[in-house]
Amino acid sequence: MYVKKNLSVADLSGADPYKLATGLIVPRPIGWVGTISAAGVPNLAPYSFFNAVSGSPPMFVFSAGRGARKDTLANVREVGEFTLNIVTVEVADAMNASSASFEADVDEFKAVGVTAVPSKGIRPPMVGECKANIECIVTDIIDIGHPEQGNGLVIGEATEFHIDESLLDGTRIDQAALAAVGRHVGNSYSHATDLFDLTRPD
Description:
- By secondary structure, the protein is α+β, with helices and mostly antiparallel strands.
- The chain has a single domain (29-182), classed as Electron Transport, Fmn-binding Protein, Chain A (Pnp Oxidase, Chain A).
- The chain is 16% helix and 37% strand.
- It has 5 helices and 14 strands.
- A 7-stranded antiparallel beta sheet has the order 3-2-6-9-10-5-4, covered by helices on one side.
């Protein structure tokens, strides 16, 4: 048995609850979210509060803070569309650079040196250097957490997948070839390439 320390959330302060949550729920997939403002300014930012939540139809969520970083959340509220750009080692540096605070009138695709490729059916662009991209339509935005420092939970439905052909076997994705990157805590990331199999029970 483990000797465990009990930490009541009511007794924690500042960023301590965040540190515990992000230190334990690992690795987290990274939603590299492309949006565009109503004025037409592209925006690109990574979110590790991100996941797939439905397969039919394919739906995804990411949680954007309502605090200092507001561009992504403002854009999805105004335009109602976003792209998901799958983070692999080839684009990890650019993804990290896009987490900086930029002014709202800055095109972050240009700022971090990636190619803004037009989407097929929505206005926000995709990252051309990514092996895979997903176009999404916003279906709901739910405000959660603290009224000021909480988050906006953005729910989107996929309308188009764009996937490098070398990754595909029908509609199955070669996980080793994808080599996605996961988010841990602080400056730590991991490669999703240390795979093992477990046969599901009947």
